[in-house]
Please model this.
Amino acid sequence: MVILGIDPGLAHTGFGAVRFSGKKRSLLACGYIKTPPGEAVSRRLFQIHTDMGKLVEKIKPDFVAVENIFSLVRYPKAGILLGGVLGVLYLTVQQNNIEVVEITPKEIKNSLVGYGSAGKAQVKKAVQALLGVDDIRSFHAADALAVALAAFYRNTAGVKR
Model:
């Protein structure tokens, strides 16, 4: 089974693909899609859609797991922009007829670190240990891999997707 995890963001959308075979897991790909801050939002969203489409075609995941976003009341514009990012991600995945699962940050942290308020460094360290890799340079990629791992743990624990 191949799971593609996504950490949505307008400036950086992290991605991480993990292959699971029994109890063995292996890193297939990770990184992030970076959009230019000076570009119009519509162009940035189109870039995310296009790049994610190419990634999905290359990786051919069995399903995609997306970190569920939240927005603070103080920053409504950020929530609206992230909603746009989610929209193009869902569109891309649906165009490829792939199932999408949403996972909250708290569930991700609980499943990997055992603590729902764990920091980014703790999550990154857990991901590196679970995948047996020395360094994942991007926190966006590490977060996306954490999403993929948490989705697998949820799936194998018998929790309905």
Q: What stands out?
A: Residues 76-95 form the longest helix (20 residues). The chain has five helices and five strands. The chain has one domain: 2-156. The longest strand covers residues 24-34.
